[in-house]
Design brief:
The chain is built from four helices and two strands. It has helices at residues 2-23, 31-34, 89-94, 177-182, and strands at residues 110-116, 128-135.
C-alpha cells in the first residue's frame, strides 16, 4: 500500500509541475498570436477562391511535387472531366502513355490478394488475411477515382506561413512498396 500511495503522489507532483511549466509563459495570448490567419479567431473572413488553369492538356507545365511520393498535380483544366462509376475521362488519355501524355504507373494496376481461412485456422478471429499483391490488367478499384489523389494546380495559391521544408530527393528517401512495383521488371 505505501508504494502505491507514493507513486500516486509522485504522479500528481509531476502533473502539477508540467501544468505550471506550460501555463507560466507570459500569460494569455491574443487571438492574433495563436492564429495562423493573423487576425481574430472570431473574424469571418474567407480566403480568395482558388483559380485553376483553364489551359487544355499539354499547354501548361507541371508544378514540382510537394514531397517525395506525392501524387503529381493536374496541370490542365478538369472542369469538363467526368469521373464516376461508369465513366473515367482521365483514362481516355492516361491509360496508355505516349510521347505527350504520361500513362498509369504499374502501381495503379495492382490488386490486393486475400486468403480466406477455414474457421478453425482463423487468427485472432479473422478468417480473411492479406497474402500479397497481384498484377491486374485493369486499373485497381482503389485507384479508379483519380481526383481522390490528383488535384488541379491552383494558380493563386500562397503559403499560409513561411517554411523551410525541403522534400527528400528519391536517392535519399526510403524505398517503399510503390517504388518496388513501379521499377521495371520487379513485378
Amino acid at each position: 500500500m505505501p508504494s502505491t500511495t507514493i507513486r500516486l503522489l509522485l504522479a500528481a507532483a509531476l502533473s502539477a509541475s508540467v501544468l505550471l511549466a506550460c501555463s507560466g509563459n507570459g500569460g494569455p495570448r491574443s487571438d492574433e498570436e495563436i492564429s495562423l490567419r493573423r487576425e481574430g479567431l472570431l473574424e469571418l473572413t474567407r480566403p480568395d477562391a482558388a483559380l485553376y488553369a483553364l489551359k487544355d492538356p499539354g499547354e501548361s507545365k507541371t508544378l514540382p511535387r510537394a514531397f517525395y511520393g506525392a501524387p503529381p498535380m493536374i496541370p490542365h483544366s478538369v472542369a469538363d472531366q467526368r469521373v464516376d462509376l461508369g465513366t473515367n475521362d482521365c483514362l481516355d488519355c492516361h491509360e496508355v502513355a505516349d510521347e505527350n501524355t504520361p500513362g498509369l504507373p504499374p502501381s495503379h494496376r495492382v490488386k490486393a490478394d486475400f486468403q480466406v481461412l477455414p474457421r478453425e485456422r482463423a487468427r485472432h478471429g479473422l478468417t480473411t488475411v492479406f497474402s500479397g499483391f497481384g498484377k491486374a490488367t485493369l486499373v485497381a478499384g482503389s485507384r479508379y477515382d483519380c481526383l481522390l489523389c490528383h488535384v488541379p494546380q491552383a494558380t493563386n495559391a500562397q503559403n499560409l506561413v513561411e517554411n523551410t521544408f525541403v522534400p527528400l530527393e528519391p536517392k535519399d528517401a526510403h524505398k517503399d512498396v510503390l517504388d518496388q512495383l513501379n521499377e521495371e521488371g520487379k513485378f
